[in-house]
Request: fold
Amino acid sequence: MKNQKGFIQIPLLVIVIVSIIVASVGTGVVLQKQEKLAPFIANISEMFKGTEGTTIIQEKAVKSEEPQVEQEPEPKEEEIVQEAKKAETQAEEAQIRAEQAELEAENLKQQAEAAKEEVEKARLLAEAEKTKAEAEKAKAEAERLRKEAEEAERLIQEKLLEISSCEGIECPSCQYCIEGKCLNRPDGYNDCGSGCQRCINGSCQNHNAACPNCQYCSSDTCVNYCEGTNTSCGCTNCANCNNLDGWVDMGVPYSCCDGDKACTCQKQEYRDYSCLGASCNSIVTNTRVNKSNCAECSSSESCLNGACQSNCAGTDTSCGSISCINCNNSDGCSGNSYLDYYCSGTSCIYTSDDCSDCSCSCGGYNIEESIANGNCSDGKDNDCDGYTDSVDSGCIAQSSDITGEFITLTSPLGGNITQNSKLTLANSPYIVTETVQVLEGVTLEIEPGVIIKFKPTTALIIGGTLKAIGTEEQKIVLTSSQDNPRARNWIGDTAANDWGGISFLGKSKDAVVDNNNYVSGNIIKHSIIQYAFTGLSLGQQLDPVKVFISNNIIRDNYKGIYVSGNSVIINNMIDNNSETGVAISGGNPILSHNEITNNTIRVADLPDFDRWDFAAIKFSTGEGLISKNIIKNNARGFSFWFNANPLIQYNNIYDNQNRNIKMAQNSDIRATNNYWGTTDLSIIDTMIHDYYDNIGLGKILYQPIATSEIPDAGVQ
Reply:
């Protein structure tokens, strides 16, 4: 088998070489042409021959050495040649395929070159088109410029011709001369002056386009399409504004009374329309309450709050129709007389007594006659004991006691007063350079006619007792020390440099008052208090006090009087205070026979004034009686906040600018038998802001009303 293996090695070598050639051709390697391949194959054949002889000799030598075995038949030369030719054929086929691939590659190369030429041709064509378009555009621009040049040349020639041929020819408006002829100017040309006419067909004619909107040209003047009167207003669709005049409902209907009829009421306003420019505009010229669906109440009923309700019992403690009144609550002094109220029909009327027999305590009667009470020189037998003034034992004894107990103070004042003291007319005026405090258990008396001037921010604070009793002729004056003092215009107006005012603490000596007549304790009477931040502070909300305030003038302060407690405030002029006349915060005070006027005017100009609680009388909490006062000419009459419950009756309340009453609490207020400046309930309604303007608020129960001014209201 060994010699057979050696014999096979040569043809295998040939096959390998041929395979390499074929593979090389198959992969596109360019080989020698067919004619160069033949000698190579012949050399291989010769190599086969030499190799065959050598192999036979070797085999014979082996045979002599080895045992004889059966030999396989050796391949013949023809078979080898056939194998070589077969390989040659395969090589030729591979060569043919290589040449075909080369031709295909060449073809693809030519196609790529052709495509590249097409792309380049397309690019050049696009650039040519672009250049052509630019050339056309340049050509058009050149043509335009040529025409403009020709037109300019023509105009120059026409102008030269006009100059040469129009000399001495004057054309009318809207025409011009060319070659000796007057030709029309273009329509719309303004050769007609400053009016609205323009050139139309060679003459000045009305031209509507020359007028503003809503106007047309008439006789060279722009006029409205409509005449602009109340009966013809607008642009082209002329309106009669007067046709729009009439009553318009405001808000929602509500229940109300018309005498003893229960009705449905509707607030209305009358709108008067007039022409303004091209539109109809309205103003409100009147208001009213329109009543409808009225139902008569029975003989035992009266109407209240829009409903028929049973009448009151008709006694002194339950008098009226529906809003039952206790007439006895109105009993009291009016001036020098005692008025005893009782029920008559559905109204409270009264009898009068001058109290000179001391059966009542008015007019200075039924009160102890003493220097402390200031009635030792009034010419009356005040206590009806048969002795008058200086011969009354009470006056003589008290005069001696006071002389021994009180010290006389001199100016300047400041600091604590620790013992009973007196400010005298002989040492007046007094200058307060620092806040004065009257300590608990100590009394400060001020004689008639004394003037006290306070430096800015100083005050008089009463922890004991103050007896400031002047007379009608000699009033006590508490004022600012400045040369030209003024009240604050609003709370931040510190430039006013006002003084603090007079403050009574809860620990001070409460006034003892019998039927509105002073007996003892704190009193300010016949005084003028002015130019302070708060003229009088009568207690604090949690520190109430009772002071007798009578016959004073409280004016030109930022706040007039602050009240917390049961003070009695009667016969005072409370005027021209910036924010509030009287502010009540708790207690059960009495305000009677005061004239509260011209207050809250300065702050009425503040932004959003309507949302503030400023008023002539401001109630936040508490009860009290407000009776026989004049409350008018203020920026606002009353304001009620939180939980106030006073009885307001027999007052004159009218001519207050921003409503007579503003309600800001949800509980009702009784305000009956007052005079409101009118008997027209619809007008009264417009001056009251309550439930019927905002259902979240309480109602002002103001019926029945007084039909004329309360004659004895105000200072007596």
About this structure: Residues 2-107 form one domain. The CA atoms of residues 562 and 641 lie 15 Å apart.
